[in-house]
Amino acid sequence: AGIIGAVGNNRLGVAGVTWAIKLLVCRFIWNDGSGYVSDAMNCIKLCKQEGALITSNSWGGIGYSSFLEREIASSQSAGQLFVVASGNSGVNLDDVPLYPTSYKSDNMISVASSGKEDFVSSFSNIGLGTVHMLAPGEGIFSTFMDGAYKLMWGTSMACPMVAG
């Protein structure tokens, strides 16, 4: 949320990519990193119902689910863009598909991480047939829990750069 919409020019913390934005936060992954595909689908449905035009999805690395694939594809009919992190396993997704980033829906943008030299980050998943673009994902300073700020790395930082 901070990478996308932290208010700037206020002498506090950081500035997001865009300052005048409404955010809808739908959490389905718990502190231990676990979550359910059905809850992810409910979040996608909620975003559709609320009229969200873009979703920023910094989650994944799961196996194939035809139910999730259909839910993402159905969000296209609502005019929604599904921006998703490619993941941080350092694999070629064309050879080793991971989801949701490996689904082939027309409303998806899969985002890999780049560093300050504008090369693909060593940890970032890639794939010419799967990943659509690179965005900064190394050493990103942003908002964090309980009003804190933190320096972070990963495609989960690159994804909201594009969504914002």
TrEMBL record:
<dbReference type="InterPro" id="IPR023828">
    <property type="entry name" value="Peptidase_S8_Ser-AS"/>
</dbReference>
<dbReference type="InterPro" id="IPR036852">
    <property type="entry name" value="Peptidase_S8/S53_dom_sf"/>
</dbReference>
<dbReference type="GO" id="GO:0006508">
    <property type="term" value="P:proteolysis"/>
</dbReference>
<protein>
    <recommendedName>
        <fullName>Peptidase S8/S53 domain-containing protein</fullName>
    </recommendedName>
</protein>
<keyword id="KW-0720">Serine protease</keyword>
<feature type="domain" description="Peptidase S8/S53">
    <location>
        <begin position="1"/>
        <end position="164"/>
    </location>
</feature>
<keyword id="KW-0378">Hydrolase</keyword>
<dbReference type="InterPro" id="IPR000209">
    <property type="entry name" value="Peptidase_S8/S53_dom"/>
</dbReference>
<dbReference type="Pfam" id="PF00082">
    <property type="entry name" value="Peptidase_S8"/>
</dbReference>
<dbReference type="InterPro" id="IPR051048">
    <property type="entry name" value="Peptidase_S8/S53_subtilisin"/>
</dbReference>
<comment type="similarity">
    <text>Belongs to the peptidase S8 family.</text>
</comment>
<keyword id="KW-0645">Protease</keyword>
<dbReference type="GO" id="GO:0004252">
    <property type="term" value="F:serine-type endopeptidase activity"/>
</dbReference>
